[in-house]
Amino acid sequence: MVSGDYESHSCTRIWGPEKLVLDDVPDLRPGSGEVVIEIHAAGVNPADTYTRSGTYAIKPNLPYTPGFDGAGVVQNTGDGVTRFRKGDRVYIARSSSGTYAEQALCSESQVFRLPENVTFAQGAALGVAYGTAYRALFQIANALPAEGVLVHGASGGVGIAAVQLARAAGMTVIGTGGTEEGRKLVREQGAHHVLDHTAADMPELVAKLTSRHGVDVIIEMLANKNLGKDLPMLARFGRVVVVGSRGTVAINPRDAMGRDAKILGMVLFNTTEQELASIHAALIAALENGTVKPVVRQELPLAEARRAQEMVMESGAYGKIVLVP
Ligand code: NAP
User: Which domains, and CATH codes, for the chain?
Assistant: First the structure.
């Protein structure tokens, strides 16, 4: 959990990973329509660090348990729960209690069946990373088979998911990574072409790869660095989905005007319950037929949550970092 002093917490205060402490808290009990999950693996996301540092839109009351992602086994169900029984293998798309823990509390609609061929560690990569990639591609950009997609930042949790999903849907996929190891992974996960997002000539390489047509969709993980260069890489009627951004950026609006291009923002938390159900029905089908296979970079003990939160913000991404209670 993240402990702290209520009085001194304010949105301007930046808190480091040292605020994360392992502590004992009372067992969780499900209310009506809720389930308690015994957590076997919790996913680590950049948003966990923004929340902890106080720089995110979500500002929990202190102390709180971090974590949005997780997978495990149903331990207890409240009145009115019909989809799950004690012992079911599940993964978590949202939770009301936080997932860096031995237990998490969720409403029934926030939990999904974990297929038998998927490990708990892989299941902990699904809620945020795969949920975001699916929503960005299919619910926000309305990406279509035969379109060209640039996954700008393809070596991390969301990027790997976007590469696998776009490839399986019949798109031509260009993925980027900042390291040799990351780019090798992106290629292995299905990207037709792989580029280095630190290379100054990336826009020219994208133009060449698309015979100067441009890409139809860009899934952008670091818009504050790239948005100005993304717009000229788009085809006519192209769409950029801003998934990640850590600051401001200058763009030339004419780069969008000339193409009838769209800049689309998204946060996963705006997804409705119905959209969430649709995303996870598609993901479960793709997990079962093997077109989606989360890549787990490293499993760390829950007690090493500080290290995990440092690692997720370092360059050299390679799939998902997972905590094991
Ligand atoms: P991650 O696993 O840490 O991966 C970060 C990715 O960004 C890596 O592929 C990294 O590549 C890449 N990157 C680094 N520098 C880049 C650059 N200059 N240009 C393009 N890509 C670059 O994080 P994640 O979970 O995939 O999340 C990615 C971003 O999306 C984060 O900013 C996160 O906060 C955000 N996000 C937003 C939502 C939402 O709802 N909007 C949901 C989930 C995540 P290398 O390390 O190989 O350089």
Answer: 5-125+294-324 (3.90.180.10), 129-269 (3.40.50.720)
User: Could you give the CA distance from residue 23 to residue 34 in angstroms, rounded to a whole number?
Assistant: 24
Ligand 1 center to 99 CA (angstroms): 21
Q: How confident is the model at residue 57 (pLDDT cuts 50, 70, 90)?
A: confident
Evaluate: CB of 46 within 6 angstroms of ligand 1.
yes
Mutual orientation of helices 273-288 and 157-168 as an angle, nearest 10°?
70
Å from CA of 152 to ligand 1 middle: 8
State how far the Cα of 163 lies from the Cα of 143, in Å rounded to an integer: 13
Cβ–Cβ < 8 Å for 20, 52: yes
Chain segment 63-97, per-residue pLDDT in tens: 899 999 999 999 999 999 999 999 999 999 999 99
